[in-house]
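Holo prediction. Input below; ligand is adenosine-5'-diphosphate.
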Amino acid sequence: MADVRPSTPLEFLKGVGPKRSDALVSELGLRTCMDLVLHLPFRYEDRSQFVGIGDIQGEHVAVQMQGVITRANEVRGGRGSRLVATFDDGERTMELQWFRGAQWIMRNLPVQKQVVIYGKPKLYKGKWSIAHPEVELLSQFELRGGDGLNPVYPSTEKLTRQGLNSAGLAKLIRNVVSQVTPALTETLPASVVSKMKLLGRAEAMRLVHSPKRPEDAQAAQTRLRFEELFLLQLSLLQHKNKVTKDLPGVRFELIGESFNQFFHEKLPFELTGAQKRVLREIRADLNTGRHMNRLLQGDVGSGKTVVALLTALLAKDNGFQAAIMAPTEILAQQHLEGLREMLGDMPVRVELLTGSVKGGARREILEALEVGEVDILVGTHALIEPKVVFHRLGLAVIDEQHRFGVAQRAKLWKKAKVAPHILVMTATPIPRTLAMTAYGDLDSSVLDELPPGRKPIQTVHRTDASRLGVFQFLEDQIAEGRQIYLVYPLIEESATLDHKDLMDGYESIVRRFPMPKYQVAIVHGRMKPEDKAWEMDRFAKGQAQILVATTVIEVGVNVPNASVMVIESSERFGLSQLHQLRGRVGRGASQSYCILMSKAELGADARRRLETMCRTNDGFEIAEVDMELRGPGDVMGTQQSGVPDLKVADLVRDRPLLTSARHLAEEVLDADPNLTQPAHLPLREALETALKARSNWGRIS
Ligand code: ADP
Ligand code: MG
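Structure of the complex:
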């Protein structure tokens, strides 16, 4: 056969062919020999031990045995035929059974030959048997030296039908590894290898597929995972350097009248230490003459808005306009109102542009924008449309809920001759590892301090059995002048049932808290917008003591006097949603509470979510647990969210490796920004190969 190289497409491999190679691509995304080499086992079976039938301990541990299949019969029964064989280990016998593919197995089963069998034993009427055991000729087993840890590979039904179950893949991979690895050279710089105490590249690739000891498997996996994360970080950091070091940015040197007037006359509070620090970080960026590309993370209520506004005022003082982009129309509207209120009578023009600003009003705003009369334009995605032309855009603030991809960010650059500074604000904290990857091309600032005077929200978990006590507590809170949110889940798949729950809940609340003493407002998605607004308003004004609602209130409602958040069927909510909802209270001076109602029986994940909520108010900590439970992709939300495509590493499991990878990548790039030193040539090539193979790294970086 021709030379097998890492880049050789799998269809050219002996024993693969077009049909199997198509399946390898569509099922597992494997195209080349290298992809196959990097298709790592997800666990190993310890095949170093043999046991006899008499040694079988229980049903849970798979066993490996040596012996002879003495006979096999097809037994026809009610639902098709099954195959029953007798296995003899030299001392005792037991049954082996196959319920599927009996005829095919019958033809291929090596009867009266020495075999190795492997499978999970089952006890039935006092006798052990094994269903669907693996069977291999002893001679073959010995030939491949199969006395170590056997890799188990991810496969799929379709691949299994084509003979590529885990064992089939193992055979193919062994073959490829033996041909590909001898020619592989080291890619990582020697300093990195020694600092991380890593195995060599070829050795790792060989060992990971045929380790003799668990430690070997571990070391090999670590090496490969690290390499992937290191390459990813290199690409992100190179991009970051390109943007922040090479792309010219407008210089905001002046702290001028707007900033000063606002700061001294309008700002109703002292900035927190964290806000001051972040502003210094931002100002440092704006002064360099380079392009700012910064992520601002802060928990609900940490005061991101005022940081954005002060930055926008800096833009104005230096003769530039600012854009502030929100994920929804409601939030954009709120930003507009909030900004106008804070600015008061200051001569700063703030306008709103969303999909629903139409006709003459829209034309007027667009014209004012183009001649530079609008200082701050607040809006939704509508802002990045080509028709929106700024006079001199100098700053774009993106207040997002993980919805704004890198490509969209880049569109903003085209809105001005010199790319405007970019400040991305996340609505909820994201785990550090995710920040380092999905936003790895941004500098990062963190608001890790809440404004003073806020009492931590007390959170408790209650089941329906405690409902009477909960209602009593609500009554006491209302007696003290507080207001209450009562939130019900509503998801599309079960919308009708959920809606009924909401209405039932509303009725029982109204019965428990009757008029005229109490007023209960209700808001849900099936109401007309004007009714919704009216009910919301009743609550905001304090006329209603209780607001029963679906998650529509998740974003954007601000009623400082509301101090209790009751979340019904809280086991059905995700962690970040629970945290967002809880963030609706704790905004005033009084002690706030969050009561998580649930049924008594909970699954492990649900219990972990509720337990986490009760334990901490720290959004960063909650985000970490959320990612452990749901995985990085779901935490980031949508497909274009920017979670990088990783083949061997895992952002949750490999957190410490990722951190090291980032630091070491920084070190390498500090010394050799473009990887032009001869010693870094293999690394540069590896990076180029990785960028080609990982479809979305290029988009992220
Ligand atoms: P978020 O980070 O969730 O967007 P906001 O910017 O909406 O938070 O701020 C939450 C509330 O805290 C607002 O009412 C805001 O006026 C107030 N706030 C912000 N910074 C401070 C501060 N340093 N001291 C007191 N209150 C503050
Ligand atoms: Mg906000």
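The longest strand covers residues 63-77. That is the main takeaway for now.
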